[in-house]
């Protein structure tokens, strides 16, 4: 492994990175190995552009423990996850230094907008650079997956596929790009229907679903066919085919979770009304479809020509607090430390 370790003027080892959340079109739900964050099924996603996490990591020789700030506040549960992620990097670099970590999102956190994906992709990217670890994108994807499953996909931009893998050590459960964002520049309108953190996190929701939902085996057994359909639609730039498989995968995932004991209800009334509104627009001939992750926010994916009409329709839904507009974006990348607080 190549490594170039250099301290800055303060004697610290420092880097900052930005990553974007990704939205799964063919959903990831369930783990075959919780300790390694190995998924029960593969998935396909799009990386967003306007939403981002910016993370600054400083390793301080001699410091014991990590000091973590997320959106200007400390969170004990998130701090433990961040320390566990940094431990994977420290093990590779053969150091035991504590770190100061400051991370900021420009969108609601832990509310169904994949903040863990962008957050841990940015953390791995910045932490590896700060420690002089010259890791390939695939190696970063594997490490990001260990920290938060869907973070494996946010290392890359555009259209991304994450393989569920078959090896027990998880080294083949890695994401890879399918198509660059600029090769099919769709847009996404995100209807924010709640800014509160969801009551049941994704990890707990997946565990409960796998243990109690009667639909779990059917979910796993049918995923490969869904992946093939979505992959072919993306490579052919076939919007209608991608719309049908994406909504199908979304509703199938939520049906799976709703059938758990007790059932998982991530939607609210506004989420449901947004689904109806998007389907009505498509019936009128507008190129748009919806997807919803484990949370109440609806994402309407559309051709660029339709974005203004889609945003207006979603803003008109009672209970929608805001509508964000984003294109498809790049993967994790280096930024100036000043940009984290900008």
From TrEMBL:
SUPFAM superfamilies found in the cross-reference section: GHMP Kinase, C-terminal domain, Ribosomal protein S5 domain 2-like
Entry's Gene Ontology BP terms: isopentenyl diphosphate biosynthetic process, mevalonate pathway
Keyword terms of this UniProt record: ATP-binding, Lipid biosynthesis, Lipid metabolism, Lyase, Nucleotide-binding
Stretches assigned to the Mvd1 C-terminal domain: 189-315
Domain Diphosphomevalonate decarboxylase-like N-terminal: 19-175
Gene3D superfamilies per UniProt: 3.30.230.10, GHMP kinase, C-terminal domain
The protein's Enzyme Commission number: 4.1.1.33
Primary enzyme class: lyase
Domain of life: Bacteria
InterPro entries the record matches: GHMP_kinase_C_sf (IPR036554), Mev_decarb (IPR005935), Mev_diP_decarb (IPR029765), MVD-like_N (IPR053859), Mvd1_C (IPR041431), Ribosomal_Su5_D2-typ_SF (IPR020568), Ribsml_uS5_D2-typ_fold_subgr (IPR014721)
Family statement: Belongs to the diphosphomevalonate decarboxylase family.
PANTHER family, per database record: DIPHOSPHOMEVALONATE DECARBOXYLASE
Protein name according to UniProt: diphosphomevalonate decarboxylase
Lineage: Bacteria, Pseudomonadati, Pseudomonadota, Gammaproteobacteria, Lysobacterales
Gene: mvaD
């Amino acid at each position: 492994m190549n490594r170039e370790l250099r301290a800055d003027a303060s004697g610290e080892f420092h880097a900052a990175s930005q990553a974007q959340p990704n939205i799964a079109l063919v959903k990831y739900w369930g783990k075959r190995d919780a300790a390694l964050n190995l998924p029960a099924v593969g998935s396909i996603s799009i990386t967003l552009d306007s939403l981002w996490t910016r993370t600054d990591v400083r390793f301080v020789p001699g410091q014991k423990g990590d000091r973590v700030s997320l959106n200007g506040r400390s969170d004990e549960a998130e701090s433990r996850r961040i320390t566990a992620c940094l431990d994977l990097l420290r093990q590779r670099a053969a150091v035991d230094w504590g770190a100061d970590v400051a991370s900021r999102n420009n969108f609601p956190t832990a509310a169904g907008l994949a903040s863990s994906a962008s957050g841990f992709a940015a953390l791995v990217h910045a932490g590896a650079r700060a420690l002089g670890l010259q890791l390939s994108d695939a190696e970063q994807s594997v490490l990001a997956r260990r920290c938060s499953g869907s973070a494996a996909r946010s290392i890359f931009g555009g259209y991304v596929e994450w393989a569920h893998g078959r090896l027990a050590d998880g080294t083949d459960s890695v994401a890879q790009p399918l198509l660059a964002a600029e090769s099919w520049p769709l847009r996404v309108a995100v209807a924010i229907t709640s800014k509160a953190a969801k009551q049941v996190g994704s990890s707990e929701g997946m565990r409960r679903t796998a243990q109690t939902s009667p639909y779990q085996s059917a979910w796993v057994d049918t995923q490969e066919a869904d992946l093939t359909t979505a992959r072919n639609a993306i490579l052919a730039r076939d919007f209608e085919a991608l719309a049908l498989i994406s909504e199908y995968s979304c509703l199938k995932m939520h049906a799976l979770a709703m059938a758990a004991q007790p059932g998982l209800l991530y939607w609210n009334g506004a989420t449901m009304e947004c689904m109806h509104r998007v389907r009505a627009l498509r019936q009128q001939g507008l190129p748009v479809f919806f997807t919803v992750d484990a949370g109440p926010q609806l994402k309407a994916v559309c051709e660029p020509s339709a974005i203004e009409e889609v945003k207006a329709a979603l803003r008109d839904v009672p209970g929608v607090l805001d509508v964000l507009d984003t294109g498809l974006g790049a993967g994790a990348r280096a930024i100036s430390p000043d940009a984290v607080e900008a």
